[in-house]
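Lecture notes, part 5. Sequence design as translation. It can be helpful to think of inverse folding as translation between two languages: the language of shapes and the language of residues. The source text, in structure tokens, appears below.
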């Protein structure tokens, strides 16, 4: 019984010695260096963790983090939504009655983005959507910390069109289609009546 007490005391003393040694030895902050540096995995001094948010790890240039959409450059081609393997991109397009402008690279815009939502909770950060985008309006930013309390807050809405504006654009398109159909029927009647 006395031997068990001695063994317990020695084990506890060794553990506390190790803990106290680490407590007083890590006074300086860890140096932030790129992971490509030869010394990255040899850092044995300083604290074991980065003091976030005061210190941040460097973000690699090719890092894949949060998606962002420059909606003014979007032609609403829907390629990003089609290529997404997890269906996290939801797009609703409304055809315009005429050309509505140009993107920064000179591409003519003919569709309105009534809805352009990306659910980052579903996103697997593969980057396929950024590759297929013909106008390069969807990009992966270097922002990785977007902490939210509600899961629904991870759905980002990029469309700047209100529901009223979308309804107005749909009505204009339906009116134009009805006028075209009426003109087509009148032409057919005129052609049929003249024969």
């Amino acid at each position: 019984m006395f031997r068990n007490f001695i063994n317990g005391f020695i084990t506890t003393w060794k553990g506390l010695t190790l803990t106290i040694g680490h407590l007083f030895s890590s006074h300086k902050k860890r140096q932030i260096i790129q992971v490509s540096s030869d010394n990255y995995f040899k850092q044995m001094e300083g604290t074991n963790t980065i003091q976030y948010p005061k210190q941040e790890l460097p973000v690699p240039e090719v890092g894949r983090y949060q998606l962002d959409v420059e909606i003014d450059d979007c032609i609403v081609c829907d390629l990003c939504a089609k290529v997404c393997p997890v269906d996290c991109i939801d797009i609703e397009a409304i055809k315009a009655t005429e050309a509505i402008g140009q993107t920064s690279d000179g591409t003519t815009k003919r569709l309105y983005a009534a809805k352009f939502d990306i659910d980052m909770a579903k996103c697997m950060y593969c980057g396929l959507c950024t590759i297929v985008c013909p106008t390069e309006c969807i990009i992966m930013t270097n922002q990785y910390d977007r902490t939210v309390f509600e899961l629904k807050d991870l759905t980002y809405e990029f469309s700047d069109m209100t529901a009223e504006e979308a309804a107005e654009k749909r009505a204009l398109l339906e009116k134009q289609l009805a006028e075209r159909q009426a003109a087509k029927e009148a032409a057919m009647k005129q052609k049929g009546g003249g024969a």
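The translated text above is only one of many valid answers, since several sequences can fold into similar shapes. The radius of gyration is 30 Å.
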